[in-house]
Task: inverse folding
């Protein structure tokens, strides 16, 4: 048994974050706050950590017990075969020394953070936390959240809308144009 504050690491497929088959695993881990995500590591230059994998995968580190700290999402910017022993020793040190919540980027890594409360309330679908792997992608996510925060109470699902699909497509086109203008895509 893992002791309180004990850590466990695993390389898991992308579907762990949103797949229906893994929903019960996420529910067990996160819905009652038994575990929390400490680190999520993704390679951006290789398809996966696992050789010959047919799916994207992530290295995740979970810690047992509730947490007040944030989860670090670490995107490796080099091919795995190009990461030296010095790089692999330095990356964890760099991440641990970062102030939680401060984005960081150098030639080897890009680090962003998520609040545990956001992860715990989104356990049914954590896919949006791992969609992007660049600073621009993170800016796009921030932009989306700002738009959604301003839209609360003003938008509805298409199923409940009396507007046409064409209107929704026009809104999407406008948002896409704004993101291109803002150089977020």
Result:
């Amino acid at each position: 048994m893992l002791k309180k504050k004990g850590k466990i690491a695993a390389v898991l497929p992308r579907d762990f974050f949103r797949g229906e088959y893994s929903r019960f695993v996420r529910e067990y881990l996160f819905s009652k706050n038994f575990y929390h995500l400490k680190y999520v590591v993704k390679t951006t230059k290789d398809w996966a950590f696992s050789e010959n994998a047919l799916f994207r995968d992530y290295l995740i580190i979970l810690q047992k017990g509730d947490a007040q700290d944030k989860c670090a999402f670490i995107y490796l910017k080099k091919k795995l075969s190009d990461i030296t022993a010095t790089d692999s020793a330095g990356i964890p040190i760099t991440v641990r020394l970062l102030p939680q919540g401060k984005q960081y980027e150098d030639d080897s890594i890009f680090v962003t953070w998520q609040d545990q409360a956001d992860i715990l309330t989104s356990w049914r679908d954590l896919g949006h936390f791992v969609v992007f792997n660049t600073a621009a992608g993170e800016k796009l996510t921030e932009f989306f959240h700002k738009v959604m925060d301003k839209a609360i109470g003003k938008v509805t699902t298409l199923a409940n809308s009396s507007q046409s699909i064409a209107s929704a497509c026009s809104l999407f086109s406008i948002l896409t144009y704004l993101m291109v203008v803002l150089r977020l895509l």
Q: What stands out?
A: The chain has two domains: 7-130, 134-185. The chain has a mean pLDDT of 80.
